[in-house]
């Protein structure tokens, strides 16, 4: 019995340190794993943070600025000037054309009421107080009312051509910049390729590092010219559509005005 107790005690003495060591080893392994994860996570976090910071720093404006510098400001600046001038003219035309828009139906009703109540002079006051090319044409037509309906029609047609020319003012410059921007870009392309070939000739060898600078200038200037042309072409098409709409309104309103004047003359009011 004593031998059994001694054996159990000996076994306990032998196994307890081993079990304790196993627990300690497991605990150490767990702690080491946690420390490794803790060490790895902070190491990864700054990388992600740095990437996010770099991504935030590389804004669209900065990318455009870098490409502008890489494409050589000597060749990119004329293209940029075409864009600035073209957009300035386009925005001015958009504002002017939108302000020139008139509610022709409402204006015709006012003129008809003025003719019925106060005659031609009252109708002139209505048109003079209204802004826009349609009202200006109506004013010119009413000024010729005493000379007959035919003179009214001729006056409307003649002054309508004048107003159409005013509406189309500035479009020729936008068209010029649309054509000029790609040509400037292609000129930068040709100059860049010449520069690349000169570099190859001077080095006596062809390598990507030698010709990269000239090819980059060539490609960036071409892309810049095409982008400017596309942007200005969109504004140009919008302006042409807006002018066509205003011209159609002027023609329809002129016919309506002549009908109102004929009705007024026949009724004698």
UniProtKB/TrEMBL annotation:
GO terms for cellular component: plasma membrane. Pfam families: MotA_ExbB (PF01618). It is a multi-pass membrane protein. The chain crosses the membrane at residues 75-95, 171-197, 217-240. It comes from the Bacteria. The keyword Membrane applies. Its main location: membrane. It is found in: Cell membrane; Membrane. Residues 1-22 form the signal peptide. GO terms for biological process: protein import. Keywords: Cell membrane, Cell projection, Cilium, Flagellum, Membrane, Protein transport, Signal, Transmembrane, Transmembrane helix, Transport. Residues 132-251 form the MotA/TolQ/ExbB proton channel domain. PANTHER family: BIOPOLYMER TRANSPORT PROTEIN EXBB, PROTEIN TOLQ. Belongs to the exbB/tolQ family. This is Flagellar motor protein MotA. It comes from Algoriphagus sanaruensis.
